[in-house]
Specification:
This protein has 113 residues and is of the alpha+beta class. It has 2 helices and 3 strands, in the order ββαβα. It is globular and about 40 Å long.
Length: 113
Amino acid sequence: RVVDTIEEIMESIAVGQQIDGDERIVLFVRMRPPHKMGEALEGRVRRELRRLASPNHVPAKILGVTDIPRTASGKITEIAVRDIVNGRVVNNLEAISNPECLKEYKDRPELQC
């Protein structure tokens, strides 16, 4: 988890977004206060991923969020975010301990084609 080793980032989640028969990677990051996502940090995230993982791991989009959805047991739920980003209905909302945070992932202008 290269991204989570960056001091300013508390945690992250990466999902695939389907676009015209292809898929692009979208990385959502929750920042440690008082940090905010900006161009300099975004560039550093991209460089670190390229250096420590591979060019294939560099996301098309990096977006800040205030929370990441979790199950009742505390595990990050990528499926819910993936479904929201791809315009699908999220099943099992009752299994998510913080479903209100999903609003932050829905219909983001940055994710429009």
